[in-house]
Amino acid sequence: MGVGRCGDPDRRRGRSLTVRTVLLGDSHLARLRRELDSFPGEVRNAAEGGASSRDLMGQAAAVGVRESDVVVLSVGTNDAAPWKHVPMPEFAQTLSMLAASHAPRGWVFVAPPGVVEARLAGARDRTNAVIDDYREAVIEVAGQVGGRVVRTDLLLAPLGAKAFADDGVHLNGAGYRVLVPAIVAACGAIP
Fold first, then answer.
1. Is the dihedral angle over the CA atoms 48, 110, 22, 58 positive or is it negative?
2. What CATH fold (topology level) applies to the domain 2-188?
3. Which of 12, 41, 58, 154 could staple 19 via S-S, CB 3.0–4.6 A?
4. Burial of residue 165 (number of CB atoms within 10 Å: 0-12, 13-18, 19+)
5. What 8-state DSSP symbol labels residue 122?
6. Where in the numbering of this chain does the SGNH hydrolase-type esterase domain appear (predicted)?
7. What is the pTM of this model?
8. Torsion, CA 156, CA 161, CA 162, CA 164, rounded to 10
9. Each residue's pLDDT tens digit, 19-42
């Protein structure tokens, strides 16, 4: 679990609480290292490469999500993989259950960016059409809980394939240079 430095006191109920940014989900957040210092407060990165929505409750429990936290969540890309294939109703229900069981200061949902299908290794891999369905579910759940959504797919559209690593799934430096400031801004906009 990665930790970034920074500290902003949060005055709630007459006591000083440290604002934390908690990252949950998949490799789109797990790969953040140097960028963690740009997030508000202390950063706890519980995201893991290969994680799906089925891993979220465990990640949240491991970090101990608090009411003063801003939680950044990125899932959908691995849920859409044929070898994991988390059914859409289960995916949406898991996101809703996570949001219902934790009451942080705010939620930032990072919508899955999609993939560069031409770069994927196998014929039976993720497709953008399938990832689109997971993205819509993320957006819907975010709306239900008053969360902010970072539309990674739209942010990275001007870069196209140049935002992705050679594997066609993970983002590269160019992609993160666009994505991270948008996530930080969404975190900062939470009162």
1. negative
2. Rossmann fold (3.40.50)
3. 41
4. middle
5. S
6. 31-178
7. 0.89
8. 80
9. 899 999 999 999 999 999 999 889
